[in-house]
Design brief:
Layout lengths: L10 H15 L79 E4 L7 H5 L2 E5 L6 H5 L7 E7 L10 H7 L29 H18 L3 E5 L10 E4 L2 E4 L8 H19 L6 E4 L11 H8 L3 E4 L13 H16 L3 E8 L4 H14 L4 E7 L24 E3 L2 E6 L2 E6 L5 E4 L5 E2 L9 E4 L3 E7 L5
Parallel strand pairs: 1-2, 2-3, 3-4, 4-7, 8-9, 9-10
Antiparallel strand pairs: 5-6, 11-12, 12-13, 13-17, 14-16, 15-17
């Protein structure tokens, strides 16, 4: 996830990073489990994700509305229900706004947003909010919006810190490829990769990212590109001697275990801050099963998942077949654990058909903590809210169901239909007047080509 537009805004933080590294070099720091800090460029990660229960998970709200399981609850009213306009209460990480009723937009970076108050009025979350915008968010009509501070998961945020710099400062933190010479750069970056299994690296991240963010009014840390299986790193030099960490550059189960351990160590420390901070990583299934134990472990040790690839596969095409079903299952599971699932759908060209595919897919799994952001590939930073997101669809009447060769989910005032198959499907619509999101009245049937979806508004209640 590239974000060079925020480089200058992060200079004060980066100076703090240097101070903290010097502090650690002089004996400071605390034990943790694994990690690295961030704030610069990167490429979209491709991992997997899943869920597991967690006693520390947030209550994502209830809504007291219709649900296929008959579940009800009370809305949290945003990050917390205290009415304090300064953000969530100290003592607990933020609660997610209840998203059960309607369509919910979130913002991916805000560096090009000129009207923060306007954006806050229709967004539930900001991935990578600029520090200079925090006051405007907190004084807006939506002061409880969840704000996250960005960091890359496992490399130095400052690309100017080359290998010589790190060899002089902390040579044992640098992660190398299996040739024992070349740093294991994350794809698309030249930032120095760090050993996320080193407790001192976790302590450094908490000290240089989470702690300042906590005092600045943020609610979450947005950790970019967390993934399982590694990306080419094999080991480090400890006291000048090669120390193998992984048997191969990718696919070592120990890399999975270290990623999960990092999430637990970082989140535990972030939750323990005087103003507790949550953790939401950019993390994808990437072909793994949503029930993979490591996937479950990541979800168990985070407060939400941002899926940059979601139903449009990082802009490479629409998810289909079992891949699409796994994404729906994964998004449902994450929310069942009280965590949020935020879906980015990148497309080559943003048009009505692409937006409806993204919306229909998102609505199949939308429960109490979910949001959607549709954009061109890596076109982040601007407010891309669309009028379609304001459609009054109401709460769901039940879960997604296979129907007529496609999948459908009924809402109180709408029906969403998606065709993730390989062939066109003609779908017989329920009775009553139905219109699309642009007001066009529908006939008795609708044909959905492969990889398409539609959201239709009903003139009478559907449940």
């Amino acid at each position: 996830m590239h974000r060079t537009s925020r480089a200058l805004a992060r200079l004060p933080r980066l100076l703090g990073v240097v101070s903290a590294v010097l502090w650690l070099a002089c004996g400071g720091g605390s034990s943790g489990s694994t990690a690295d800090a961030g704030g610069s460029s990167g490429s979209s990660g491709s991992s997997d994700a899943g869920g597991a229960t967690d006693s520390g998970a947030h209550d994502a709200g209830g809504g007291g509305t219709k649900d296929g399981a008959g579940e009800s609850g009370s809305s949290s009213g945003g990050p917390d229900a205290s009415g304090d306009a300064s953000g969530p209460d100290a003592g607990s990480p933020p609660f997610w706004e209840d998203t059960y009723d309607g369509i919910h937009y979130f913002q991916t970076f805000d560096s090009a947003v000129s009207d923060i108050a306007g954006e806050a009025s229709h967004a539930v979350f900001v991935w990578g909010a600029d520090q200079g915008s925090i006051a405007a968010y907190r004084s807006s009509s939506n002061p409880k919006i969840v704000l996250s501070d960005y960091m890359p998961w496992a490399y130095d945020p400052d690309a100017s810190h080359d290998l010589a710099y790190w060899k002089n400062l902390h040579p044992d933190w640098v992660l190398y490829q299996c040739d024992e010479t070349t740093p294991a750069y994350y794809p698309g970056t030249t930032n120095m990769p760090l050993d996320i299994s080193n407790p001192a690296v976790v302590a450094w991240q908490i000290q240089t990212v989470a702690t300042p963010a906590s005092s600045q009014g943020y609610d979450m840390i947005a950790a970019d590109e967390l993934q399982l299986g590694g990306w080419g790193g094999c080991g480090v030099y400890a006291n000048g001697q090669w120390k193998a960490l992984y048997s191969a550059g990718t696919g070592d189960p120990k890399a999975d275990a270290d990623a999960v351990a990092w999430a637990k160590a970082f989140r535990d420390a972030a939750h323990a801050l005087p103003h507790p901070m949550g953790l939401i990583p950019n993390f994808q299934l990437g072909g793994s099963s949503p029930t993979d134990p490591s996937v479950l472990g990541v979800v168990a040790n985070t407060d939400g998942i941002l899926d940059e690839c979601s139903f449009t596969q990082c802009g490479s095409g629409h998810a289909s077949g079992q891949t699409w079903l796994d994404l729906v299952s994964f998004a449902e599971y994450v929310q069942q654990q009280g965590k949020a699932y935020m879906a980015i759908d990148e497309v080559a060209t943003v048009n009505d058909a692409e937006v409806e595919w993204a919306l229909a897919s998102y609505l199949m799994s939308k429960e109490h903590a979910s949001g959607i952001f549709v954009s061109g590939v890596q076109q982040y930073g601007s407010d891309l809210w669309r009028s379609e997101y304001g459609a009054a669809i109401g709460p769901p009447c039940g879960a997604m169901q296979p129907a007529q060769g496609a999948y459908a989910r009924t809402f109180e005032h709408a029906i969403a239909i998606a065709n993730p198959g390989k062939a066109s499907v003609t779908f017989t619509l329920p009775g009553g007047k139905l219109t699309d999101l642009h007001g066009a009245v529908q006939g008795a049937t609708i044909t959905l080509v492969a990889g398409s979806g539609v959201v239709l508004l009903a003139s009478s209640p559907q449940c």
